[in-house]
Write a structure and sequence with these properties.
323 residues; 23 strands; mainly beta; 4 helices; 13-stranded mixed sheet; Phage tail protein beta-alpha-beta fold; 4 domains; Phage tail proteins - horseshoe like beta roll fold
Length: 323
């Protein structure tokens, strides 16, 4: 018996429902990128359900969007957010962003802290949102928000300067060290001989990514405090991190986190599955390979790219750290 699976979609734009009417959808989500995005391609001839108005006459920037995709009507939510831009040519293409779209529009009043924790800043910048921290007491040192700065710009500066991550799942903001993110309790399985369409994976060892981290803290009196992990004399490429007003133990925390990102045994790269199972960024996946059983392992999923349309339904997963 041959099983046939029919692609199905359920997309809401400005609270109007389009069922199985989309030409193509591409969704990109990552624990290392602040903004998740979706591209929706609609037929030019598509009309709203009341058949009175062409879609192109009703769509506008800022409209709410929800995308559910699946097989045979068994759809799961892949994206929620807002229309960022529209191309009303043929076909109609909508570029969408998740909840970070709202933080890009939120302009803050100036504020400064002599010594701030991550929670101090994020609770001010993202007031009204639920936030899940890997550690709310991460020290950011002295911190200042200037004039005409958006909430998203502040998060981007923290991300750049401290190596922290910020990303939304729905309306919940996740914040902290990427390596300390706890995956969801559901573990999925990709078996190379059963439900993997293709892969671009490479098996690496810690020796392949030799690294030493130089963490620098610029102190108020003009002095500079430097910490090396594992040591200045160790072999490996140097990654330099710069901070302000952190002590030695706090510098070590940042340096060790950076080292963990690269020094591990396991797979790196992408593995492509089908539409199901519905893996998301931040989930865990067990990789199995009967040809190389010793390489079986459980990994965090760093990023997901969902491609849905005429060519089928694929889920491209970027493999992160081994759990």
């Amino acid at each position: 018996m041959i099983w046939m699976f029919v692609l199905s979609s359920y997309i809401s734009i400005a609270n109007i429902i389009f069922k199985d009417a989309v030409s193509e959808v591409v969704v990109r989500r990552s624990i290392n990128e602040m903004t998740s995005t979706a591209t929706i391609e609609l037929p030019k001839s598509l009309k709203f359900p009341d058949q009175t108005t062409n879609v192109s006459d009703r769509l506008k920037r800022g409209d709410r969007v929800a995308i559910q995709l699946g097989y045979d009507g068994d759809n799961q939510t892949e994206f929620t957010g807002y229309v960022r831009s529209l191309d009303l040519s043929i076909p109609i293409v909508l570029q969408c962003e998740d909840e970070m779209y709202q933080l890009k529009k939120r302009v803050l009043n100036p504020k400064s802290w002599a010594k701030a924790t991550l929670k101090d800043v994020v609770s001010y910048v993202c007031s009204g949102y639920e936030v899940i921290y890997t550690d709310e007491n991460i020290n950011l040192g002295s911190f200042q928000i200037g004039n005409d700065v958006s909430a998203a710009q502040v998060l981007a500066e923290i991300k750049r300067s401290y190596g922290l991550t910020f990303f939304f799942k729905g309306k919940v903001l996740y914040s902290g060290f990427p390596f300390d993110l706890v995956p969801s309790t559901t573990n999925y399985v990709y078996d190379f001989q059963k439900n993997v369409a293709e892969n671009q994976l490479e098996y690496k060892t810690a020796d392949d990514n030799k690294l030493k981290v130089k963490a620098i803290s610029h102190l108020p009196d003009g002095k500079v405090l430097t910490v090396w992990i594992p040591s200045q004399d160790a072999e490996g490429d140097i990654r330099t991190l710069n901070f302000s007003e952190l002590n030695e133990s706090e510098l070590k925390v940042y340096a060790q986190q950076e080292l963990k990102r690269f020094n591990y045994h396991g797979y790196a790269g992408t593995v492509t599955g089908f539409g199901q199972p519905f893996l998301h960024e931040g989930d865990s996946v067990t990789l199995r390979d009967n040809l190389f059983p010793e390489r079986k392992g459980k990994y965090l999923i760093d990023a997901i790219e969902v491609v849905f349309g005429k060519q089928g339904f694929r889920r491209i997963c970027t493999i992160g750290r081994k759990l």
